[in-house]
Amino acid sequence: LPGMVVPIPGKLVASPEDASSIIWDASSITWDASTITWEASSITWDASSITRDGGSITWGW
Predict the structure, then answer these.
(1) For the chain, what is the domain count?
(2) Cα–Cα distance between 17 and 40 in angstroms, integer?
(3) N or C: which terminal CB in the chain sees fewer CB atoms within 10 Å?
(4) Tens of pLDDT along 9-59?
(5) What is the domain extent for residue 5?
(6) Long-range contact list for 53-57, CB < 8 A, 24+ apart?
(7) Is residue 17 included in any domain, yes or no?
(8) In a domain, 28, yes or no
């Protein structure tokens, strides 16, 4: 998530300095809805820059 340091469980593949190539390995991420709160006022999803494909989720911005 751009501009934020968010403790999301899972494997981060890529250098944090290179935001254009950050890839989350979805196979190792567990979303716990009871402990994660998304604050809509501070997060903007740009659909054109999010790609999901089977085993991974890639954000580009």
Answers:
(1) 1
(2) 25
(3) C
(4) 555 555 555 555 556 666 666 666 666 656 555 555 555 555 555 555 566
(5) 1-32+42-61
(6) 55/25, 55/26, 55/27, 56/23, 56/24, 56/25, 56/26, 57/23, 57/24, 57/26
(7) yes
(8) yes
The token pair that represents 34 in the structure block = 């009871």
Report the 10 Å Cβ neighbour count for 41.
6
The answer to whether residue 37 sits within a structural domain is no
Contact between residue 29 and residue 1 where contact means Cβ atoms under 8 Å apart: no
* pTM reported for the whole predicted model: 0.14
Task: Find where tokens 């968010």 sit.
Answer: 6
Asked if residue 11 is part of any domain, the answer here is yes
Segments of the chain assigned E as strands: 11-13, 23-25, 50-53, 56-59
